[in-house]
Amino acid sequence: VRLVESGGALGQPGGSLRLSCAASGFTFGSADMTWVRQAPGKGLGWVSLISTSGRITYSADSVKGRFNIARNNGKNTVYLQMNSLKAEDTAVYYCCTGGFSYWGKGTQVNVSS
């Protein structure tokens, strides 16, 4: 199983970034997918989950209305569209399978002016 995140960058407050996670080594279309983040000096925080079909999504209150999770099963990729960025969104963002069995190495997002 391999999960590779990309798209992390320096973003400005109020701006947008899109993270991608390319999956391989398992039947991607049969797995719920999750984004988790870890802010500096803090523990892991769940961000968002998407069902196998993509029709059902859940997001943490802290990102609801700003972040959107989506997936393309034909490309074995899950995305996190991050809008209206805030400084507190600064974190390493990890992609993982819905049951947290497999994790990527993460991608760094920094939000600063």
Task: Describe what this molecule looks like in 3D.
- The chain is mainly beta and 113 residues long.
- The protein has no helices and ten strands.
- The chain has strands spanning 2-6, 10-11, 17-24, 33-38, 44-50, 57-59, 67-72, 77-82, 91-97, 107-111.
- The strands form two sheets. A six-stranded mixed β-sheet has the order 2-10-9-4-5-6, with no helix packed on it.
- The N and C termini lie far apart (37 Å).
- The model has no long low-confidence stretch (mean pLDDT 97).
> What is the subunit arrangement here?
single chain
Question: What is the molecular shape?
Answer: globular
Write the H/E string, N to C: EEEEEEEEEE
Q: What structural category do the secondary elements indicate?
A: mainly beta
What is the straight-line distance between the termini? Answer: 37 Å
Query: Strand percentage, roughly?
Result: over 45%
Compute the gyration radius: what is it? 13 Å
Strand order of the largest sheet: 2-10-9-4-5-6
Question: How does the major sheet shape up?
Answer: 6 strands, mixed
Secondary structure: helix percent: under 10%
Low-confidence stretches at least 5 residues in length (pLDDT < 50)?
none
Q: Given the structure, what is the number of helices?
A: 0
Q: What is the β-strand count?
A: 10
Question: Could you tell me the mean pLDDT?
Answer: 97
